Amino acid sequence: MYLKNEDVKFESVENARGGKGTIRKTSFLTKEEMKENSRLFGKIIIPPGCSFGYHVHEKEGEAYHILAGKGMYNDNGTEYEVNAGDTTYTMSGCGHGIENIGDTDLEIIALILLDK
Q: How far apart are CA 69 and CA 47, in angstroms?
């Protein structure tokens, strides 16, 4: 399989998980391609002032790798500033959220791994 950049389709999500504004997200692989290992491998773009709301993961964990921008990451109630090159991970039973606190888009690679 080969997926070219121009073939990637983004969807707009308003108030994602109770967050502010509208984000854009895409999946690089389908559910069939990920089998029973993952629920998401994709990219999330959060414009300035917008957020992906705080949410808890059950029977799965999620990693964010920050590609560009600056964000405030809520890690189970503790907040950290995150920047390009940083990686976060939320384990099953824990929660997280992220807000763009910069003046450019916050671009994230997201990977949700299912507990087995």
A: 9
